Fold this protein.
Amino acid sequence: MSSIIPKIPSYSLARSLFRRALCTAATEARTKKLERIADDLLDLNKIERHDYNILFFHKMGLNRFGGAAAAPAAQSSSAGGGTSSAPAAAKEKTAFDVKLEKFDASAKLKVIKEIRAFTDLGLKEAKELVEKAPAVVKKGVTKEEAEKIVAKLKEVGATVVLE
């Protein structure tokens, strides 16, 4: 009589088959999502990719050098008692960016000449840089050099900021 009754798969076998079907569906959906994201990223222009990169690192809590950003580190140290925050606060910034905020229209030529003096830009590139103000003029300079650049640009009528 046992040979007449068809064999029914066990519960665990049915469950594993169901899981496998579900995993394949989830994997396919995940793969399609990743392909869509990759296509969207490839459609971005150079400036949009740069902005996306900055946003992505910001969301991940990383700074531009790959380390943890200051804000998440401050949150974790304040929760732990705050004793380790003193050495972190003692660190000083060593590299600065000089950013041209705005300039007097009458001093445009002088500003372009000063920018050409401390960068390797040609006349056309310097003019484009000045016209798209606010823009970073020089990146990663020491504090002394940055202060000299700021002083020269302020003399000719530009508003400059250190970042």
Q: What stands out?
A: Strands lie at 96-103, 135-141, 158-162.
